[in-house]
Amino acid sequence: MSFSNGSEFLAMGGYGLYVWGSLGMCAAVALAEIALLRLRRQALLREGGHDDGPEAEAGGAA
């Protein structure tokens, strides 16, 4: 498929609303997931529930 100008590219042969809407929703969900993961990590760190790795469970014996 070739596009002669930017307007045709954005229209995507009549399916532009579906294509760009789907892409926008995927981007919004991905950004929301990242934001929620950061918030949860911060909450866990504030509660003192952070894990320093496998050594922390074994009492640091190496």
What attributes characterize this protein structure?
mainly alpha; 62 residues; rod-shaped
Task: Write up what this structure looks like.
This protein has 62 residues and is an all-alpha fold. It has a domain at 15-48. It is built from three helices and no strands. The protein has helices at 6-11, 16-47, 54-57. The termini are far apart. The mean pLDDT is 85.
Describe the structure concisely.
With 62 residues, the chain is mainly α. It has helices at 6-11, 16-47, 54-57.
User: Strand count, sense and closure of the main sheet?
Assistant: none
Radius of gyration: 23 Å
Instruction: Tell me, rounded to a whole number, the average pLDDT.
Output: 85
Q: What string gives the helices and strands in order?
A: HHH
How many runs of DSSP E, i.e. beta strands? 0
Query: What is the helical fraction, as a range of percent?
Result: 55-70%
Global shape: rod-shaped
Low-confidence stretches: none
Structural class: mainly alpha
Alpha plus pi helix count = 3
* Residue fraction in strands: under 5%
Span of the ends, CA to CA: 61 Å
